[in-house]
Design brief:
heterodimer, A: alpha/beta, six-stranded parallel beta sheet, 49% helix, B: Rossmann fold, two-stranded antiparallel sheet, 8 helices
Chain lengths: 179, 197
C-alpha cells in the first residue's frame, strides 16, 4: 500500500517539478518533509535550480524576497508545522512589501495522523494562512495538483500575491513509524 | 554604557565611502537610520520589519545577482534573532555577499536592554564555526579601514562584527512604504521592463 503511494508521490512530484521548471523557478528553498522527498530530488538534479536548505522556514520569506529583488523566482517547500514558524515573516516582509511568494505545503496532523503532537498545528494551518490573507488551495486529488501549482505560481508572480498549495495528508499517506 | 572607540555613523561613512552601485540591505532599527544618514539611494533596500531576516534577503539577492556586490548591515539584536540564517548562508557561500553587524550590545530601539553579546556571546565566532572563514571582530579605526578598503569589492563571503559605542546620533528616517522601496530598487537594478513582467 505505502509502496503504491510512494510511486504516486513520485509521479505527481515530477509534475510539480515540471511546472516549477517551466515557470523558471530558480531558488528552491526547503525544510525537508517526507512528502517533498521526490520533488526535492528532482529539483536538486536540475542544474538551473539552486537548492537552499533552511534552518527554519521563516528564512524562506527573506530569501525569496531577495531573489525577487534580483529578478529571480522561487518556491518554498515545507510541511504544515513550518507555517507556524513563518507567521511574522509572511506578514512583516512578504505582505508589507507585496512580494510574490509561492509555498507548497505538505500536510500533517489530519488524515489518519499517528502523532498527536502534529495535530494542533496541522489543524490550525489553514486558519493561520487565512488570517494573513494568503490565497490557499487544498489539493486532495492527484489530477488537480499540476494545474493548481501552475495557477498559484502565476497568481503569485503575475499579481504579487502570496499563494499556498496544501498537499493533503490523504495524498501523501500518514507516516507509519513502523517501516 | 560601553566605551568602544568606534561611532556608528563614522563606521557607516567609512564602509560605504566607495560603494558605487553596490546593493545595500539594512536590518530594522538603528542600522536603517545609519544607512539613511548617508542620503537616499535607489539601491538601498530599507528593511523596516521582519526582524531576523535581513541576512536572508541578502542571500536571495546575492544568489540572483552574482556579478553585483551585496552588503547587509544589521544590528546585534537583529542578527541574534536570525542566527540560523548565518548557518544557511555559510553553507551556500556566495562570494558577493558581506555581512556587517553593528554591535552596541543593546536593543537600542526598545529601551537599551542588553543583548547576549553584552554577556560573552561572540557573533564572529559563531560565523566562523558555521563555516564563514573570513569572519572578524573589529574594534578600532585601523581594523575598520582595513575592512572598508575591501568590502566594496567581490571577493569572498565575509562576516564582520563591529563593536560600536552607544553615543546617540540623530534618527534619520528613510522612505518606509515597502512596495515602493521594492519596485524602485527593482527598476533601478533590473530596468523598467522588470515592472512590466
Amino acid at each position: 500500500m505505502q509502496k503504491n503511494i510512494n510511486k504516486k508521490i513520485e509521479n505527481w512530484s515530477y509534475d510539480i517539478y515540471q511546472v516549477l521548471s517551466k515557470n523558471n523557478a530558480r531558488q528552491i528553498a526547503y525544510v525537508p518533509d517526507a512528502g517533498h522527498k521526490s520533488l526535492i530530488e528532482y529539483c536538486a538534479n536540475d542544474k538551473f535550480m539552486n537548492m537552499i536548505s533552511l534552518t527554519s522556514e521563516e528564512e524562506g520569506m527573506g530569501l525569496l524576497a531577495g531573489a525577487w529583488l534580483g529578478g529571480e523566482k522561487g518556491v518554498l517547500l515545507m510541511q504544515s508545522s513550518g507555517v507556524g514558524n513563518c507567521i511574522n515573516a509572511i506578514a512583516s516582509i512578504t505582505r508589507a512589501c507585496n512580494f510574490p511568494l509561492l509555498m507548497l505545503i505538505t500536510m500533517r496532523g489530519e488524515w489518519n495522523e499517528f502523532n498527536p503532537w502534529q495535530v494542533p498545528m496541522g489543524q490550525a494551518t489553514e486558519k493561520v494562512l487565512d488570517a494573513l490573507n494568503v490565497v490557499t488551495i487544498r489539493c486532495e486529488k492527484i489530477e488537480e495538483i499540476s494545474d493548481t501549482v501552475s495557477a498559484m505560481m502565476g497568481l503569485a508572480y503575475k499579481s504579487n500575491c502570496i499563494s499556498a498549495v496544501l498537499l493533503s495528508q490523504r495524498l501523501i499517506g500518514a507516516k507509519s513509524f513502523k517501516e | 554604557m560601553n566605551d568602544y572607540e568606534l561611532n556608528r555613523r563614522y563606521v557607516i561613512t567609512e564602509l560605504l565611502r566607495n560603494r558605487k552601485d553596490n546593493l545595500i540591505i539594512n536590518g530594522l532599527g538603528g542600522t536603517c537610520w545609519d544607512v539613511a544618514s548617508l542620503g537616499d539611494n535607489n539601491l538601498n533596500f530599507y528593511v523596516w520589519g521582519g526582524m531576523g531576516n535581513a541576512c536572508m534577503i541578502g542571500l536571495g539577492l546575492a544568489l540572483s545577482q552574482p556579478n553585483k556586490k551585496i552588503i547587509v548591515i544589521t544590528g546585534d539584536g537583529e542578527m541574534l534573532m536570525g542566527i540560523g540564517s548565518l548557518i544557511t548562508i555559510a553553507v551556500k557561500k556566495p562570494k558577493n555577499l558581506s555581512i556587517v553587524v553593528f554591535d552596541n550590545e543593546l536593543y537600542g530601539e526598545t529601551g537599551n536592554q542588553k543583548t547576549h553579546t553584552a554577556n560573552g556571546v561572540i557573533l564572529s565566532t559563531i560565523a566562523k564555526g558555521s563555516g564563514i572563514k573570513n569572519s572578524n571582530i573589529i574594534q578600532n579605526t585601523t581594523e575598520l579601514k582595513s575592512l572598508s578598503s575591501k568590502i566594496n569589492q567581490i571577493n569572498e563571503l565575509s562576516f564582520s562584527q563591529i563593536k560600536i559605542n552607544n553615543e546617540l546620533d540623530e534618527t534619520i528616517l528613510p522612505i518606509r512604504e515597502g512596495p515602493y522601496i521594492k519596485s524602485r530598487f527593482r527598476k533601478t537594478l533590473l530596468g523598467k521592463e522588470a515592472l512590466l513582467e
